[in-house]
Amino acid sequence: MHCSIRHQGQAFEKKPPLLRVQDVRKSFRGLEALKGVSFELFPGEILGLIGPNGAGKTTLINLITGFLAPDTGSIRFAGEEITGLAPEEIARRGVLRTFQHIQIFSGLSVFENVLLGLTRQTKRRFWHDLFSLKKGRSEEALFRERVEEVLTLFGLEKWASFPAESLPYGEQRRVVLARAVVSSPRLLLLDEPAAGLSPREGRELVSLLKNLKKDGFSVLLVDHDVELVLEVCDRVIVLAFGELIAEGPPALIREDQRVLEAYLGEEHAAG
């Protein structure tokens, strides 16, 4: 039987999930940060993850990317168990993340900062496929071409030769995102990409994320800017006090009483 997940007038082809998180639990000194969280992310989908402060969002990302190990539960990527694997092993499988705090390599240009996203991933199948398509081209030429392509996508081409640390904050955010995207990861986890951005920079980020969506990237997007998440994501999951309280298309999440109570409190949500 052929099934689909429908959202906002579109049909999401229900292929096998790219990421499956099942009954994941994590405690710190007896305090339960995650209480049996389960969800799936499908190929080509941008899935939003929101929740009030202390909901467990960063803990969940750290579990998926191997920076923490769950107490119980299972995390599968592309059909394979990755629970408890080291971060570098998970990254080699094509799961890349950005962090809340900007990670710029001082003393390197914008071009060189983005290039690092390739030199760390040369063993991935992405490069096998690329070299097969462009036999006879040098590795250096292919790397340069790919970096230039991504710099243009992110509107950073004019900054290519500038020291990355000299750029304004919003442009530095874009450099970090470009470095994550340049190797075409199979799954990209964005942790608070809109943090500290001005309204104009926030609108530019929305445009960039929509372009990634058009290019078929699979993304788990975590951000405190709920409106941004609701605008760009196909589906949204909501955490509160370590539990998954809602899951669905943005239009439903926007009106979900449990979500309103989690953000505003029961009295304000009811009023």
Features:
12 strands; 24% strand; Rossmann fold; single chain; disordered N terminus; globular; four-stranded antiparallel β-sheet; alpha/beta
Quick overview of this protein structure:
With 271 residues, this protein is of the alpha/beta class. The chain is built from 11 helices and 12 strands. The protein has 2 domains: 1-94 and 186-271, 3-Layer(aba) Sandwich (Rossmann fold); 103-185, 3-Layer(aba) Sandwich (Rossmann fold), CATH 3.40.50.300.
Describe the structure.
The protein has 271 residues and is α/β, with parallel strands linked by helices. It has 2 domains: 1-94 and 186-271, Rossmann fold (3-Layer(aba) Sandwich); 103-185, 3-Layer(aba) Sandwich (Rossmann fold), CATH 3.40.50. It is 38% helix and 24% strand. The chain contains 11 helices and 12 strands. Strands 8-9-10-5-11-12 form a 6-stranded mixed beta sheet, sandwiched between helices. It has a 4-stranded antiparallel beta sheet with strand order 4-3-6-7, covered by helices on one side. α3 crosses α5 and α3 (110-119) runs parallel beside α6. It is globular and about 50 Å long. The model is unreliable at 1-11 and 122-128 (pLDDT under 50).
